[in-house]
Amino acid sequence: MRTVTVVGASLAGLYAARELRAQGFDGRLVIVGEERHRPYDRPPLSKDFLTGSADEGRLALADAEEETELAAEWLLATRARGLDARGRTLLLEDGRTVATDGVVIATGASARPLPGADGLAGVHTLRTLDDAYALREALSGTSRRVVVIGGGFIGAETASSCASLGHEVTVVEAAPLPLVPQLGPDMAGVCATLHRRGGTELITGSGVARLHGGNAVSAVELADGRVLPADVVVVGIGAVPNTRWLAGSALLVSDGVLCDDGCATALPQVVAVGDVARVGAVRTEHWTSATEQPAVAVRNLLAGRTVEHVRPLPYFWSDQYGARIQFAGRRRDGDAVRVVDGSIDEGSFLALYERDGRTTSVLAVDRSRPFLRARRDLARAAQPAPAA
To answer: Alpha-carbon Rg of the chain, whole angstroms?
Structure first.
């Protein structure tokens, strides 16, 4: 294998490039990125960067020395538009092509747009560094009333940051409680409490009917008829995997690029990692997946077949209103939840989710040390038994 192309200058893309060099690939390494920026850390965008306590320099994932060691060709501000049927030629939107022996797809996902919001000033999503710059500028002006549509992690973290900057913040969540799919109905109420303690108004159980305004947004009308005045609207209603550029290729695409348990796709010498990859029928949009999958994907890419499988223990964290939420495991509806350390009323606790007498996942709010121990125990129990 003389040339490997990483499509996506993302967290997962950078980790794949690192793994290629670490695992002995010394050929031509090409990294294609749609954004003009070198790989950067996205979690701070809705937190420290948005509030101004961190600048762009602190987001960089690689310094000049590491980039020199990678010895990669960087094609930034360049969008991929196709992959040939054999996966051996990458087509770029500017008309260029890249002949390659292997491909790592790491194109991530894009913020899901709100229908009817196109071209309306004051409406923002928060997925990229440029998004964060635009929202930060809007918040630094005379805008005071902020409506966040969607109570997921991005929405909650953005609401928390806006509240800390002194804005009047309202979060609109269509579900009865925020983060129910991730935490379950018993623990989702904890997140609702955080919003209220942080001075944010939380409206649940109602979707958005339309946005009001001429050139700029002025209000959000809910499905139940209520109208919320707004100077700034932040849309956080999920993400869509970036797979449109693969239309016409031989790859199977359905809510992400379909892969086996080793991140290998239907095309030989083509693997996928990060938010765009549906590994073993599951697509996971978390920082840890983007950093753990590349080692396995690259090993299988260089081997030319799947010799190793991804066996991650899902993990995510979120910082909201001064509290750190941490979760690990695989929760399912019907799991019993038991607080084993601290107290929900005190706002600091560790809880175990259990099914059939065993722990399936763990949740902590401001209980980092006990959580680390519980997460270690859970990971140990999840490891397959050694062969006899």
So the answer is: 22
Q: Residue 240's beta-bridge partner residues?
A: 110
| Helix, coil or strand: residue 51 | helix
150: Cβ–Cβ under 8 A, 6 or more apart, which residues? 171, 172, 173, 235, 236, 237, 238
Euclidean distance between CA atoms 197 and 152, whole angstroms? 17
The yes-or-no answer to whether 113-235 and 322-382 have a common fold is no
Tell me the per-residue pLDDT of 332-375, one tens digit each, with 9 for 90 and over.
Answer: 999 999 999 999 998 899 999 999 999 999 999 999 999 999 99
At 59, the amino acid letter reads L
The alpha carbon torsion through 185, 276, 161, 177 (nearest 10 deg) reads -20
Q: Nearest-CA neighbor of 177 among 151, 214, 156?
A: 151
**DSSP classification of residue 307:** -
Contacts of 33 (CB under 8 A, 6+ apart): 8, 9, 10, 13, 39, 74, 75, 76, 77, 78
Identify residue 367 by its one-letter amino acid code: R
Q: Where are the domains of the chain?
A: 3-110+239-303, 113-235, 322-382
If you classify domain 3-110+239-303 with CATH, what class do you get? Answer: alpha beta
Q: Which residues pair with 257 in a beta bridge?
A: 253, 277
Digit-coded pLDDT (tens) for 170-186: 999 999 999 998 999 98
DSSP 103-156: EEE---EEEPPPTT-TT-BTEE--SSHHHHHHHHHHHTTT--EEEEE--SHHHH
Q: Which of 122, 133, 113 is nearest to 36 (CA)?
A: 133
Q: Say which DSSP state 60 is in.
A: B
Yes or no: is domain 322-382 CATH 3.30.390.30? yes
pLDDT score of 253: 95
Which has the closest alpha carbon to 37: 24, 53, 49?
49
Are 45 and 53 in contact by the 8 Å Cβ rule? The answer is: no
| Count of beta carbons in the 10 Å neighbourhood of residue 43 | 19
DSSP letter at 264 equals: B
Pair 212, 227: CB distance under 8 Å: yes
Q: In the CATH scheme, what is the code of domain 113-235?
A: 3.50.50.60
